[in-house]
Amino acid sequence: MFIQEVQDGAEALTDGESVEKTLSIIELISSGGVGGQIIIAILFLLLVAAIYIYFERIFAIKAASNVDANFMNQIKDHVSNGKIDAAQMLCAQVNSPVSRLIAKGISRIGKPLADINTAIENAGRLEIYGLEKNVSILATISGAAPMIGFLGTVTGMILAIFELANAGGTIEMDVLAGGLYTAMTTTVAGLIVGIVAYMAYNHLVVRTDKVVYQMEANSLEFLDLLNEPT
Q1: What's the domain count of the chain?
Q2: Alpha carbon of 18 to those of 11, 13, 21, 106: distances in Å?
């Protein structure tokens, strides 16, 4: 008798329990309708572009920052001893922004110091432009992605309101689900892409600034070398 009561109680609990519903990411996206899927696809492409630009730039900046610590000492020795050709050859062997700036300055040796400084500054602007290539696209993605996500949110809410207006006074969650899924998924996707692009952009800016400071320090060191009394 006791066992029967326990079984009956267990069955009652089982009947009263609600079945937990799970929803995968693929199902969530597919439930958002065509409009939501298009916006998700656009955001996915933006994410791929942001990741590609980040890694392409980070490797380029890392390569640009690799300068031999003994490079400037060798340049000083060659220039001090009048071995201009050897200094130019050394710069040609080192593929870095710093070596190209120094090579530009060496090619102007014999001219006024102001002209040498101007030539180095102009070459430096070109090098900075090369380091910052496509980085502005990351800034654009970081701002545009959340806006595109919000566009999907507005679109989804419009669809939900439209379904409400045509529901004939009865509200069914199944009818509203498509619009609500579109609204929520696009918002989350837009914010994720925007955050990733924003963090990638700021990291690249910091790394680029380090290379720029390195270029400026070595350029000043070279100009000081030329300004030393002989």
Answers
A1: 1
A2: 13, 10, 9, 79
Is residue 105 domain-resident? yes
Q: Please report, rounded to a whole number, the percentage of residues in the chain having pLDDT higher than 70.
A: 74
HEC states along 173-210? Answer: HHHHHHHHHHHHHHHHHHHHHHHHHHHHHHHHHHHHHH
CB of 183 within 8 A of CB of 157? yes
**Does 4 reside within a domain?**
no
Cα distances (Å, whole numbers) of residue 99 to 88, 109, 218:
9, 15, 9
CA distances to 7, 69, 78, 97, 107 from 73, rounded to whole Å, are: 88, 8, 9, 17, 18
Nearest one of 135, 113, 110 to 50, comparing CA atoms? 135
3 located within any domain: no
Three-state secondary-structure class, residue 111: strand
Of 217, 218, 224, 209, nearest in space to 103 by CA: 218
Reported as a single tens digit per residue, the pLDDT across 116-174 is: 888 888 888 888 888 888 899 999 999 999 999 888 877 777 776 776 677 665 666 66
Residue 137 is assigned to a structural domain of this protein: yes
Question: What is the domain extent for residue 68?
Answer: 32-227
3-state helix, strand, coil in the chain (%, to 5): 85, 0, 15
Residue 95 is given by DSSP the state -
Q: Do residues 142 and 194 touch, judged by C-beta distance below 8 A?
A: yes
Instruction: Please indicate, yes or no, whether the overall pTM of this predicted structure exceeds 0.90.
Output: no
DSSP secondary structure string, 33-84?
A: HHHHHHHHHHHHHHHHHHHHHHHHHHHHHHHHH---TTHHHHHHHHHHTT-H
